[in-house]
Fold this protein.
Amino acid sequence: MVEVTPNAAETEATGTEQNRDSIFGIRSYTYDRWMSSVNIPVHTGFFIPDLRTVELGWWEERKCQAAFIQLEGQQGIIEARVSEIQPGESLPPLKLSVDEVVYVLEGRGLTSIWGASQSRRRTVEWQKHSLFLLPRNRHHQLSNMQGERTVRLLHYNYLPLAMSTVPDPDFFFNNPYEKPEPLAGDGTEFYAEAKALPRQDGTGRGRILWLGNFFPDMRAWDKLDANQARGAGGQSVYIQFPGSEMSSHMSVFAPRLYKKAHRHGPGRVIVIPDGDGYSVMWEEGKEKVIVPWREAAAFVPPNRWFHQHFNLGETRARYLALHPPYQFHGYTDEKVQDLSNDQIEYCDEDPWIRQKFEEELAQRGLTSSMPDGAYQQRDYQWDYRAAADE
């Protein structure tokens, strides 16, 4: 087991030719070379303790303080970066050739998007914990509506993948191509209220998929479904951004409980909207890495590494997972009808998992709420209604 401290988990370097090999190792992608050329901090490792305080540097082209987040498990697939907008200011307009999801870490502001005709602008106001999409091949501008507080944003896109297919970075920024269809093809506002779509998951259970480009407050979001596969009485919301391959989900679970270990493909950036706990990540048969988290912590489970989430607090914990395109979801059985290859049941887990959890709680004067039956019965039935009332 590896106890990873913040200094060991998070390293930083400016992107220069000299230190590129130390950051990226032997393999270097087109995106890596472009990222290195920007000369702002690149934060690496297994996790970031707090995205709200991570060090930034001046990005002259974007006219803002920013940093790249390049954690283990996202290389070559997903870009994550943090940017700031100073009080009362707006960033220069930008046009990306890929979709980008934005999560608001701090502040309140406004996003405007438009195509060839600026008369057809669409705008949305956002606040701390908002989640929204910046659509590809559209101009957008981000503004800070507050006069005294700085805005800080987390950006997430699949630019590394795109640059591997078209290895010309300039192609992806302010490309003159204009997307022909309107921003909202059905006549509704682009940033309208999300819609609930009933569907079935791979196990045949009913579930709601939320289709929308704007979610006003993920910390307060309460339209949740029981997530019976993962245990701990947990609940989740599943999000699909229309017209995009970008998706997301958020899981919520009660105090002094923990979820079942599971694994999937690479590139999911997990950020914490609320809670106090930790996660454990490990490659099968190898040492475990402990990732402590509170609000605004971020981490990325590497490809096919098991990981498990633990709530040490006295309120419900939330973790928001931003997903890469579907071909990187990486389950053994894409229908997820048999979870045995990608999930560890409580009764099969390493005894150290339970011991560690109970020791962490004891240090806080707390005891575990995990029922004994969960460790003894493979088909233990959690009370999801009770969890919703916590």
About this structure: The chain has two domains: 2-172, 195-389. The longest strand covers residues 64-71. Residues 195-389 form a domain with the Jelly Rolls fold (CATH 2.60.120.10).
